[in-house]
Amino acid sequence: MPVKRWQINVTLLMALLAALVGALGGCGSSSMARTVEPFTPRANWQQIDAKGYFTFWIPSELIEEHLQGIDSYVGSWFSPAMRVDFDYGRYAAPFDVQAFPQPVTVMQDDSSGHAGAIVTYTNATGNAVANLYVADIDGVNHLSMTAAGFAGTEASIPLLVAQSVRFPLTP
Question: Residue 152 sits in which domain range?
Answer without folding.
Answer: 5-163
